[in-house]
């Protein structure tokens, strides 16, 4: 679409797969490994830092799912989601959706900076 035509299904699948791999590697190398490194000096047991990181990831996933459920927001393709918010303009719905998307990464970076 950037060059005037719609990419083929295979090209779109390849692009989405590449983007997913980049996001997974970014979260692994920028968040998970540093979290393990930060937790290791606090505990003698080798399994405890990994358990803390796993529980933190699960809690983060739950927080995002809860925000997605409880906050009104709008997606480009599927439209409005969450509780009814007739008084909110579309721009605020998009801002809330972007906040739901970016909140976990910002929180992780903030915690990392405090360490």
TrEMBL record:
The chain crosses the membrane at residues 14-36, 48-67. One of its GO terms (molecular function) is zinc ion transmembrane transporter activity. It is a multi-pass membrane protein. One of its GO terms (cellular component) is plasma membrane. Keywords: Cell membrane, Membrane, Plasmid, Transmembrane, Transmembrane helix, Zinc. PANTHER family: ZINC TRANSPORTER ZIP11, ZINC/IRON TRANSPORTER. This is Zinc transporter ZupT. It comes from Antarctobacter heliothermus. The gene is zupT.
């Amino acid at each position: 679409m950037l060059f005037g035509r719609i990419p083929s299904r295979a090209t779109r699948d390849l692009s989405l797969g590449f983007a997913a791999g980049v996001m997974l590697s970014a979260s692994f190398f920028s968040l998970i490994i540093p979290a393990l490194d930060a937790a290791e000096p606090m505990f003698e047991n080798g399994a405890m830092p990994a358990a803390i990181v796993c529980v933190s990831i699960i809690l983060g996933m739950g927080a995002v799912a809860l925000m997605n459920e409880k906050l009104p927001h709008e997606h480009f393709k599927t439209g409005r989601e969450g509780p009814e918010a007739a008084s909110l303009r579309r721009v605020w719905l998009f801002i809330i959706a972007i906040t739901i998307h970016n909140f976990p990464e910002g929180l992780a970076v903030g915690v990392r900076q405090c360490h």
